[in-house]
Amino acid sequence: MSNPPPVIEVTDLKKHFPIRKGLLRRLVGHVHAVDGVSFSIGQAETIAVVGESGCGKSTVGRTILRLIQPTAGTIKVNGTDITTLSRHEMRPYRRQMQIVFQDPFASLNPRMRADDIVGEPLMVHGIANKKERAEQVAELFVRVGLRPQQARNFPHEFSGGQRQRISIARALALNPKFIVADEPVSALDVSIQAQVLNLMVRLQRSEGLSYLFISHNLAVVEHIAHRVAVMYLGRIVEFADTADLFANPQHPYTEALLAAIPVPDPAMKRTRHIMQGDVPSPINPPLGCHFHPRCPIATERCRVEVPLLKPGADGRMVACHLR
Question: pTM for the whole thing?
């Protein structure tokens, strides 16, 4: 019996944004936001994508959902290639894939009541009549930890954590199999972050959901992710099981990210890996390894040859000539 295909399979995904200047809007270059990313996500699995701001994390998530059109590469949903599907052909797949945005206040229409926000996907896709939609919305409120009596409130009448629960309820309305969570807790207080993360984990176990969890907070990632992809300037530089990556990072960039995590024990001493310089421009990225201008162990080979993301002895993937 063959194994089922991954829920999401991405191969050599690229997204280059054109730069146009002048009265005639001439093409003068490209922003290499995503530059050849490959991974797959299984059923009920959480893949976290981490990295500094501007590394291409959010662009990966939105390109997979076809909210942004890819420049190159392939995107498969349950084994079906959706990369070049038209807007009409994408409609059935929209029900299988949803997104939870970073800012729950900006992503909710302030003029709509909460039950209309959560029920809007059902109405757009012609699912159920008005009475049935109301019943489903009430059920969704309960599933995400809200009271159905709050359904007629406007977004500004909820707290930040409650607004994010509304966003999650809206994402769940169509019973998707895959959700992109784009920094879903970064705008929330720490105590509320834990509640929302626990809710996502509970929903994953009960519904079999797969997540692409985008974050810059490695402490949060350690709590929720099964595997972690570390991105730098549009490329994945390390991909490993969460426990292995946190216990024994291989890429110098991953080491620096983990070393920057605050430790709540002032007596604890550890080696600091302070990265030198700024992140290079994605308009004109460095040749060879993108990280070599900031890498403490870079060699001449790193400056001229692109390191491939190759498997290591323990199953992880590392893009480094020296590891």
Answer: 0.91
